[in-house]
Design a protein that fits this description.
about 350 residues, Rossmann fold, 3-stranded antiparallel sheet, 15 helices, Gluconeogen_factor, cytoplasm, CofD-like_dom_sf
Length: about 350
């Protein structure tokens, strides 16, 4: 998913014995964060958005009327194929490490051709089938974790598929007029300006196991990822937001490296924070982590430091990107989290 890290980082010792980590998000942003946290601990729980309505996930969601499997599959593959996980396994069973790497690739493989299966990842069909067979998505995910010997756990954010709706301006001749855009893909690709999002049904039932994982965690991360469709939805599940407010875990917010065309076109880093606060003004975090080139030193960074304080947080500026790409380097993210934990005396 990213370029190899510099040699001086690749051989760093980052393990924290007994650390319990929870990562909230979806898609490629969550994939990178899970890969990063796996450098620190095998006890990583992914809490995943469940509103995808595009591609293979959308097709399976409509055909089976179940939670879309795509982001959940990616989280399983991330924990299974994380370099730290493969290194740990190779130290005791090199053949098992090779099998893990191969099966992670198989889960991600998409069928070719032009028939009914075209474009479906193998892992989506496997997870959807086990979910339908057991009629228990958490049980289905736990079964796949057990089957493949994956460290950690993958959980849905809610126990039913959600729909994202957004209030969007800039689509009418009168710029003051807004329109409601419905569906994750439509929200992510709208040419208008997203003002606010919500989920349907409102106040969805949380995944109880996800709430418990947040409450018991030592560190919780939120982001990076599609801001309106993968990050903000996590604060729109009331019981999950309560768990985030009340947990004793160190809470770390990773801000995106760049704007996403359509969803956050023209957004500054500061605006990302303002829109998150508009959806969850009671949320407090410990650290807000941004990539250094995205916030040059000076007035802009000073404004951002003040905005961070509205979350009760300290602004943390670090080198996070894969060189030449707007993608978080998982090992750089891991090193950043390791330093934050050391700064707080956490173990």
């Amino acid at each position: 998913m990213s370029a190899p890290p510099p040699a001086d980082l690749r051989h760093s010792s980052l393990k924290h014995d007994g650390l319990k980590a929870v990562a909230l998000g979806g898609g490629h942003g969550l994939y990178n964060t899970l890969t990063a946290l796996r450098y620190l601990t095998p006890a990583v729980t992914a809490v995943v958005t469940v509103a995808d309505d595009g591609g293979s996930s959308g097709r399976l969601r409509r055909e089976l009327d179940r939670i879309p499997p795509g982001d959940l599959r990616m989280a399983l593959a991330a924990l299974m194929s994380a370099p730290a996980a493969l290194d740990d396994l190779a130290a005791t069973d090199p053949a098992a490490a090779q099998r893990h790497s191969r099966w992670a690739a198989i889960l991600q493989h998409r069928f070719g051709g032009s028939g009914a299966l075209a474009g479906h990842p193998v892992g989506n069909l496997l997870l959807a089938g086990v979910d339908e067979f057991t009629d228990d998505l958490v049980g289905a995910l736990d079964s796949l974790v057990e089957l493949f010997g994956i460290d950690g756990r993958v959980l849905p954010m809610a126990t039913e598929p959600l729909v994202i709706e957004a209030d969007v301006t800039g689509l009418e001749e009168d710029p003051r007029l807004g329109r409601v855009i419905r569906g994750q893909v439509a929200v992510a690709t709208t040419p208008g300006v997203v003002r606010r999002v919500r989920v349907t049904p409102p106040a969805p039932a949380p995944c109880r196991e996800a709430v418990e994982a947040i409450q018991a965690a030592d560190v919780v991360t939120l982001g990076p990822g599609s801001w309106f469709s993968s990050v903000i939805p996590h604060v729109l599940v009331p019981e999950q937001l309560t768990a985030l407010r009340e947990t004793a875990a160190r809470k770390i917010l990773f801000v995106n490296l760049a704007n996403e065309p359509g969803e956050t076109t023209g957004f500054s880093v500061e605006r990302h924070l303002h829109v998150l606060a508009a959806h969850a003004d009671s949320l407090q975090v410990d650290d807000i982590v941004v990539d250094a080139p995205s916030v040059p030193a000076g007035r802009e960074r000073e404004h951002l430091e003040r905005t961070a304080r509205q979350f009760g947080a300290r602004l943390r500026v670090a080198d996070l990107a894969v060189p030449g790409q707007n993608v978080h380097d998982p090992l750089k993210s891991a090193v950043t989290v390791d330093r934050l934990l050391a700064d707080s005396g956490s173990t």
